[in-house]
C-alpha cells in the first residue's frame, strides 16, 4: 500500500512540474520544485534531468511565443498593432474632410461649391524600439505625398536629454498653427499669415524637448530643400535650401491650464540665376475659393528671411492664441528694394460644455479635444464658440502691389466624438484689391479621422 502511495505521489509530482513548465506559469518555481522533489526522493536523478530539460525547452518556447505575440487595439476607433515587447508598433489611419461654401459678393467672381478638402491615408510605426516612420498620402486635389520620413530616438540612451533625428519630407519647425494638425485647428482654415509658413519640405532635423516648471520646452533646427510637389527647380537651376528653427517655452501645461510662448525663423537661399521664382498669395480663409484677394505675383528673390512669434493660453474652457510673422525678400541682383511682408492673427475660443483645448508640451502644439460626453452614448458632445481677427499685408513689393486683407471669422465647432467633428465658419473679408468685391463667406465641414 505504501509503495502504491509513493508511486501515485511521484506521478502527481511529475505531472505538476510538466503542467507548470508547459504553461509557462513559473520559471524559477518549476526549478525549485524539481529540487525539492529530488531532495525528498519523489523523483530520481534521471527523472530530474528529463524534467529539467523539459522545463528549459518549454521556457524557450514560451518566450518565443510571447516575443511573436501581436496585440491589436481599436481603442478610440484607431487601428493599432504592437508586439508584446513593444519594440514593433504600427498604426493605419487617415482623415476625411468634406466642405461646402457660399460666397456673397456683388460681382459674382467667387462661385459657391463643395469639395473633398482632405482624404488622407497613412501608416506609421516603430521598429526596433528607437526607429520611427510615417508615410501619408492625400487623395484630395489630385493627390500628393504629405509626410514621408524616418525618425531616430535612440540617442537619449547616451545623453542626459532626448535628441531626435528626422530625415525625409515633413513640416519645417515654423508656426504654432501650421504645426497643429488640420484635425485639431480651431477654424476650418488656418489664418491669413499661414501664407508665410514653409510647410512640408525634404530635409533633416534635430529636435529635443524637456520639462520646466509645470510644463515643458521644445527646440528644433533643420536643413531643408523643397518638397515633392514643388515646381521651383527648372532646367539649369539649383534647388533653394533653407535653415529653419523653432523654440517653445510653456511654464504651465496642465489639462486645464496652459501658457505657451514660442519663436521661429527660416533663412532660404535661391539660385542667383533662377530669376522670378517667388510668389506669396493666400485664399480668403476658404479653400473652395478660386481667387486670392492678396497676391504678389512672381518676383525676383535671392534669399528670404522669415521670423515669427507665437503665444497661446488656456484657462479651463477659455483659450486664446496669436502669432505675428514677418518676411523679408532680397532681390537677386540686389538692385531693388527688399520686399517686406507681414501678417498676424489673434483668436479666442470658449467651450460651452466645459472642455479644454488639449496641449502637448513635448510637441509645442495643440492636439485632440476629448468631449466630456459622446453623442450616441447619452451625451451631447463638446460645443465650442470661436472668433478670429487676421491680417496679411503684401503691399511692400518693388514694382508691384500684393494688396492687403483683413478678415473676421466666427466659428462654431461640434465635437460629436473625439474623432468626429462638424464645423461652421462665417468669414467677413476686407481688402484694398480693386479687382474684387470683398466676399462674405459661409462654410461648413464634416470630418472624421480614424
* CATH fold node name of the largest domain: Porin
Low-confidence stretches: 17-26
Indicate the percent of residues in helices: 10-25%
Rg result: 30 Å
First CA to last CA: what distance? 69 Å
Question: Based on CA inertia axes, which overall geometry fits?
Answer: elongated
The largest β sheet comes out as: 16 strands, antiparallel, barrel
CATH class of the largest domain: Mainly Beta
Order of strands across the widest beta sheet? 3-4-5-6-7-8-9-10-11-16-17-18-21-22-23-24
> What is the SS-derived class?
mainly beta
How many β-strand runs? 24
The second-level CATH architecture of the largest domain is Beta Barrel
Mean pLDDT: 88
SS field, number of helical segments: 4
Q: Helix-strand pattern, N to C? A: HHHEEEEEEEHEEEEEEEEEEEEEEEEE
DSSP strand content: over 45%
Tell me the name of the CATH homologous superfamily of the largest domain. Answer: Porin
Number of discrete domains = 2
Task: Give descriptors for this structure.
mainly beta, Porin, two-stranded antiparallel sheet, 450 residues
Secondary structure blueprint with pairings:
Layout: H1 2-22, H2 28-39, H3 45-68, E1 70-73, E2 79-83, E3 89-104, E4 113-127, E5 131-138, E6 144-152, E7 164-171, H4 176-179, E8 200-212, E9 215-224, E10 241-253, E11 257-269, E12 276-278, E13 281-282, E14 294-295, E15 299-300, E16 303-315, E17 318-330, E18 339-351, E19 359-360, E20 365-366, E21 382-396, E22 404-417, E23 420-431, E24 440-449
Antiparallel strand pairs: 1-2, 2-3, 3-4, 3-24, 4-5, 5-6, 6-7, 7-8, 8-9, 9-10, 10-11, 11-16, 12-15, 13-14, 16-17, 17-18, 18-21, 19-20, 21-22, 22-23, 23-24
Helix pairs in contact: 1-2, 1-3, 2-3
